[in-house]
Specification:
Layout (H helix, E strand, L loop, with lengths): L1 E2 L4 E5 L2 E4 H24 L3 H26 L1 H6 L14 H19 L3 H19 L1 H6 L13 E2 L14 E2 L2 H20 L9 H18 L7 E2 L2 E2 H23 L1
Parallel strand pairs: 1-4
Antiparallel strand pairs: 2-3, 4-5, 6-7
Helix pairs in contact: 1-2, 1-5, 2-4, 5-7, 5-8, 7-8, 8-9
Length: 257
């Protein structure tokens, strides 16, 4: 059993430094450092890659927030001041992936960078960034799962429990499940597949999309705060589509050999 120590890492007068922002920044910094190292190894200009990452990260954060706000529009329409309150949580990874991908495509065209190679360099770095960033949900006491009495159960304060589950104290730490899965995906990509697939540009990106989506599909089934598409969980629908797209893409690459 464990519980969050609170959302604020450091308070300096009226200035509050939150764990959520610190962890996202740490994930971005580590991912960028690894991407810089990989760019040098793969023989492309690391400065141009760094510019692509900066553009992708900024647009991805905007896309992740916009995606989340649109799925919760009734709340944000009534509380428009909360739209910019990203420090309280509310970033949807699939919105970030879509927006970041579009930004990377446009930047690579502008800077004449190879899109498949750029994405292959970024893919493992996104996975490790996700593994770290997910811990922001722990400190904010959000994105947890259904009630449980397992030994690794997560205590949630009454103020953060949804009304229908107010009588329960302990829940599945789905943030932890996804963080560990993302860490495993990073290990497979970085240490197992990165060099083996470097001659097949785009293959590593497809592996990331497929592997991440498999884990996200199952973890999402435990969450109680899923964004919904009608009667379906949006993240599960998108995850299934990405698994299929990844499988088809890798199959076509194999046949092309």
């Amino acid at each position: 059993m464990f519980s969050s120590p609170g959302a604020i890492a450091l308070q300096i007068g009226p200035l509050a430094i939150r764990w959520y922002g610190l962890l996202i920044a740490t994930g971005v910094l580590l991912g960028t450092t690894l991407a810089h190292r990989e760019a040098i190894r793969r023989g492309i200009d690391p400065d141009r890659l760094l510019n692509a990452i900066v553009v992708a990260v900024l647009v991805a954060l905007l896309g992740a927030r916009l995606y989340y706000v649109l799925f919760n529009w009734d709340y944000y329409a009534a509380n428009p001041a909360k739209i910019l309150a990203v420090w309280e949580g509310g970033l949807a990874i699939h919105g970030g992936l879509i927006a970041g991908l579009l930004a990377t495509i446009l930047y690579c065209r502008h800077a004449q960078l190879s899109l498949p190679l750029t994405l292959d360099i970024m893919a493992p770095c996104v996975a490790i960034g996700q593994a770290i960033g997910r811990w922001g949900n722990f400190f904010n006491q959000e994105a947890f799962g259904v009630q449980t009495n397992l030994p690794w159960r997560l205590y949630i304060d009454p103020a953060h429990r949804p009304p229908p589950l107010a009588a329960f104290e302990y829940f599945h730490p789905t943030f932890l499940y996804e963080s560990l899965w993302n860490l495993l995906v990073f290990g497979l990509l970085w240490f197992g597949l990165r060099k083996r697939l470097q001659e097949r540009r785009g293959a590593l990106t497809l592996c990331y999309l497929g592997l991440y989506s498999i884990g996200r599909f199952f973890v999402e089934g435990l969450r109680i705060d899923s964004l919904m598409l009608g009667s379906f969980r949006a993240a599960q629908v998108v995850s299934l589509l990405l698994v299929v797209a990844s499988g088809v893409g890798l199959f076509l690459m194999a046949r092309r050999k």
